[in-house]
Amino acid sequence: MQYTRLGNTGLIVSKFALGCMTFGSGEGALGSVYKVNQETANKLVERALEAGVNFFNTADAYADGQSEVMLGKALGKRRQDVVIATKVGNRMSEALIDQGLSRQHILASVQGSLKRLNTDYIDVYLVHRLDPYTPLEETLEALDTVVKQGMVRYIGFSNWPAWLAARAVGLQHEHHWAQFRAAEMYYSLVGRDLEHEIVPFVEDAGIGIMVWSPLASGFLSGKYTRENPGGNGGRLTGFDIIPFDRERGYDVVERLREIGGQHNASPAQVALAWLLSRPSVTSILIGASKMSQLQDNLGAASLSLSVDELAELDKLTEPRAIYPNWFNATIYDAQARAALNTR
Fold this sequence. Notes:
Elements lengths: L2 E3 L6 E3 L1 E4 L4 E2 L9 E2 L1 H13 L4 E3 L8 H10 L7 E6 L14 H15 L4 E6 L8 H13 L3 E7 L3 H14 L4 E7 L11 H8 L2 E5 L33 H18 L3 H10 L4 E7 L3 H8 L8 H10 L8 H6 L3 H7 L3
Parallel strand pairs: 3-6, 3-12, 6-7, 7-8, 8-9, 9-10, 10-11, 11-12
Antiparallel strand pairs: 1-2, 4-5
Helix pairs in contact: 1-2, 1-9, 2-3, 3-4, 7-8
């Protein structure tokens, strides 16, 4: 297992984290995701620990809190040996106020997560989504409160745009509030949008990226093909929220197969190894509903792609430049660049 620090902190975490969104049961849009019972959860957590994983990720809203309960039970006495991240923001009941990022909901939700996880503290607490109805200052002050009260060690955000996260960091500095140190964001070979703004921002701000859905909901595992777009009932048939160019994606998967064949590795392992090479990535959340999936994903930790292979995957999936990025990459002072020997 590889390890690194969480952003600009002294907290050492494994570069693979076990994502526990699959823990629990339910119906509706996420019914195809929630399918791990307690017995299987115990085995998955134990295998992750054996492999050196010390980072576990969940959320209060996953399976109506079942995920947190099951993770807490699976860890048991090992809780003190690991880092737990959970999230707040999504609706937890029919009560109108039981959602969002208000002070009321954050303080109540921390207590709920602590109880479900059966722990005295949360290592990393992330705001799960945007809340357009709550002032940003109220959210940030509430997060500072739960840190100062000892219920939370570090805070972060998930799925926020760079401009809002940057504004938040500015307010945190101004008011001497607890700083964002983690960002849980979607990132994959077929989804590199965050490289435009989020990556430069977090690198400057000392925030570590925790990658969710590194395989684009399983697409990069190779089970979905032009001939079998449904993947024999895979997750994408019931929970398909990630937009990407499927035709281009099939080409990417074919190249992953070819590269994997040279390393005796699966397409998923190659896709994960590419992500591990990205300097802004702190940890990759690997979710699994069965042991074979977890075993395959963990195998990527020991896969080393060549410089040429990484460069080829970079070029194959390079995101189209957006304005003003393309303008600034084109218009520069060549004489100053040459004198300073920079790119």
